[in-house]
Amino acid sequence: MSTSTGALQGIKVIDLSRILGGPYCGQILGDHGADVVKVEPPQGDDTREWGPPFIKGVASYYMGLNRNKTGMRLDLASAEGRDVLMTLLEGADVLIENFKTGTMEKWGLGYEQLAQRFPRLVHCRVSGFGADGPLGGLAGYDAAVQAMAGLMSVNGEVGGEPLRVGLPVVDLVTGLNAALGVLLALKERERSGKGQFVEASLYDCGLSLLHPHAANFFADGREAKLTGNAHPNIYPYDSFPTGGAPVFLAVGNDRQFALMCKHLGVPALAQDDRYATAGARSTNRAALRAELVRLLAERDGPQLAEELMAIGVPAAPVLSVRAALEHPHTAHREMVVKLGDYTGVASPIKLSRTPATYRLAPPA
């Protein structure tokens, strides 16, 4: 167990949130040295039961979002529970919550109410759609927001049905934006001496993920289409079958394309007017794909990916979750952390003097 201090040493966080976005925000802050107290309702965070698999009776889902926190349970619907929370907030810098809009206010714990007693408190709310507007106050879940924010409409095979992204990308980016908002508010507090209300909604964060599809729409008004693994703007930026496992080519400029063509033994392909520029390659992608599928048919995918990366052409084998987690570079980057029976993905944020530390397994 690391004993080094993090960038947020001395910051106390009360995390009232459940499910994903809020807890992920709290874990980010905890990884970087904040003292995070996770306060759960009497029945516990819902995700404790989101399994199998279970680890000593607790779902792996919960375990992936709640390390570096101490835990306790409070019934905030009771006056006694709220009194305990107010005591906790006496020394706190940050409050994270994701209750349905109006719930905290009903309990006398809304931002305006708490700010009178704790003017330096940064109050962070993760919500589905924000408090007002046509959808204000409604509950939001990742997959539903993926559908409504347009993400599903651009995810799926050509000619197929729109698909949910295979991980809770909206919840995760909402947690990241919540953590970023907290840090911005803490930085501003150094100047003003005052806390403020920070909100990260799933809906807003879902829309923020629409690049480049939103930028394309603003430019020409055309609806995005399902493109499978292919990028809508650049090519070849797609997965390709080989004589072995599939390979993903991520060729972003003319130099990389020329290097790839030379490596494949067809340098003249990079001089073909149909493929000589990024715009031409994107326009003529169907013909280029057919040519590359032919050239790669006898190649070993993983070996080819290594060869291309070595000469400066972005490429990768299409790995399973197990293969990615067990990859030698994953170990080299110290991206798997172990604490007793707990194993999780480490913080991707690398600081040279105050790195992330892993002090506490998720609360039992």
Q: How would you describe what is shown here?
A:
One of its GO terms (molecular function) is CoA-transferase activity. Keywords: Transferase. The protein is built from 15 helices and 13 strands. The chain is an alpha/beta fold. It folds into two domains: 12-209 and 332-345, Crotonobetainyl-coa:carnitine coa-transferase, domain 1 (Rossmann fold), CATH 3.40.50.10540; 247-317, 2-Layer Sandwich (formyl-coa transferase, domain 3). The strands form four sheets. The protein has a six-stranded parallel β-sheet. Strands 9-10-11 form a three-stranded antiparallel β-sheet, covered by helices on one side. Strands 3-4 form a two-stranded antiparallel ribbon. β12 and β13 (342-345) form a beta hairpin. The chain starts with 11 loop residues before the first strand and ends in a 19-residue tail after the last strand.
Number of domains: 2
Give the helix tally: 15
What is the overall shape? elongated
Number of strands: 13
What is the level-2 CATH architecture name of the largest domain? Answer: 3-Layer(aba) Sandwich
- Average pLDDT works out at 96
Give the biggest beta sheet: 6 strands, parallel
Radius of gyration: 24 Å
CATH class of the largest domain equals Alpha Beta
Helix content range: 25-40%
- pLDDT < 50 runs, ≥5 residues: none
Structural classification: alpha/beta
- How far from one another are the termini? 18 Å
Fold-level CATH name of the largest domain:
Rossmann fold
Strand content: 5-15%
Strand order of the largest sheet: 5-2-1-6-7-8
